[in-house]
Amino acid sequence: MKPARLGRLAVLGAAVALAVPAVAQANEVTKWNEIAVNTINAKAPLTSAPPAGAVFVAMVQGAVYGAVNAVDRHGRPYLVDRSYPKASANAAAATAAFRVLDSLFSATDHAALQAAYDASLLAIPNGASKEQGIEVGEMAADAMLAEGHDSRTVIGCTFGSGLPGVWQPLAGPSGPLCDPTPWVGNAKPFVVNSPSQFRTAGPYSLGSPEYAADLAEVKSLGKIDSATRTDDQTHVAAYWQTNPAANYNAIARRFVDQFSLDVTDSARLFAMLDLSAADAIINTWNDKYYWNFWRPITAIRVTDPTWTPLFDPSLPMAIGGIGPLITPPYPEHPSGATAYASASMHALASFFGTDEMTFYATSSRFPIDPTQPRERRYFSRFSDLTNEILEARIWAGIHFRNADVQAANLGREVEHYIQTQYFAFVH
User: Fold this and answer.
1) CB 74 within 8 A of CB 427
2) 224, 258, 264: which is closest to 90 by C-alpha?
3) Which of 36, 61, 355, 422 is the most buried (most CB within 10 A)?
4) pLDDT in tens, 339-391
5) What kind and span of H or E run contains 172?
6) What are the phi and psi torsion angles at 49 (to 5°)?
């Protein structure tokens, strides 16, 4: 499918997405996207936590796009300047993804990755096209790895001054709870110019009526035994404590199947999605440590020492699914989950040329009953998902509204910049 047809299909897709079962497509882009997400998410938090995962998934999808775009040139060159129209796009995609993943995780995953890559190549007819595709994929992967996006570093907790408004780590079972991924705030972006290019306006002043209103809202709605939060809001808050890379890339893979996207369009879809998400998260993490603002739990306990947010390890797992729900161990402003969702959903809307699309998301949280499937939540607009997450972080008791609103704006601005700088040139 060529991009010019996507806008017309978006309208049809909104009507039939729930009625017509998807038919899986033979596509090396989607195959390796799933391999990449699963491989990255299986790692320790330094690599798998959502901020870091966004960077590594983008490295894979950026390399895949650079390789496929060199074969079937529909946009500005990315990583590979020359065109190779006779090369196999599937061989280029599989090779680019394999080479990036194998370089990042060879010590633990080489055998599994090599087996998957061998299977990919076996399914592609031998010949000059396949060999040239492999060569193009290697070029794209090598160029991506040379960019220096992987700057993983273990950094200890940064303790604030203890003054009002300043973030402080919370106590955990074996010491302070620390951010495993502060390095993301200074990682090299993929398309935007710097980690601080999209600086937000920052938190409200502690003495402002706007801050007082946000504080009162989260104090009421975000309390673990809130009398103002509904049961559905409690459920939604827990549902969205999910892995965004797994969730949003799965949505994109279902769109590939639903619309029978070819390799070229699939590579562009995942590049738009994951490069936007990664650059939004890099800017968000830089912004977090720039403002270093306290969480609601710290702010509210100044006057109410017993206040506990919904996201607390004591939350019954029947509400939250398997695994504890906690206040995230890094500064509050802006919201990472909301920025990630906003950039991702705006990227999908840009690709299809419409905000109106019927689709579902599946939480990565396992249900208590292992015989039950993971819950699906259905949406009729991409923006509806972002808006639900924006509210969910307040219901969870972990964010002020201002942090969510500014994060949604940051994600939108990053995606718009990437769209106009690279993907608007698709012909």
Assistant:
1) yes
2) 264
3) 61
4) 999 999 999 999 999 999 999 999 877 666 777 788 899 999 999 999 999 99
5) strand 171-172
6) -55, 145
3-state secondary structure at position 205: coil
Cβ partners under 8 Å of residue 94, min gap 6: 28, 31, 32, 117, 120, 121, 124, 137
Closest residue by Cα to residue 406 from 332, 319, 314, 311: 332
Within 10 angstroms of residue 368's Cβ, the number of other Cβ atoms is 13
Report the pLDDT value the prediction gives residue 161, as an integer from 0 to 100. Answer: 75
The three-state DSSP-derived secondary structure of 356-385 is EEEEEEECCCCCCCCCCCCCEEEEEEHHHH
Token readout for 311 is 């996201």
Q: 117-126, 270-279, 317-326: which has the minimum mean pLDDT?
A: 317-326
Q: How close are the terminal C-alpha atoms of the chain, in Å?
A: 13
Question: Domain ranges in the chain?
Answer: 205-425
> Is residue 71 within 8 Å of 89, Cβ to Cβ?
yes
Q: Just give the CATH number of 205-425.
A: 1.10.606.10
Q: Looking at this protein, which amino acid is placed at residue 116? A: A
CB-based burial, 151-177: b 16+ in 10 Å, e otherwise: eeeeeeeeebeeeebebbbeeeeeeeb
Structural tokens at position 247 = 């969730």
Rounded to 5 degrees, φ, ψ at 303 are -115, -15
Q: Can you tell me the distance from the alpha carbon of 32 to that of 38, in angstroms, rounded to the nearest whole number?
A: 10
> Sign of the CA dihedral 156, 162, 164, 169?
positive
Question: With a threshold of 0.85, does the pTM exceed it?
Answer: yes
- Report the C-alpha gap between 151 and 183 in whole angstroms: 7
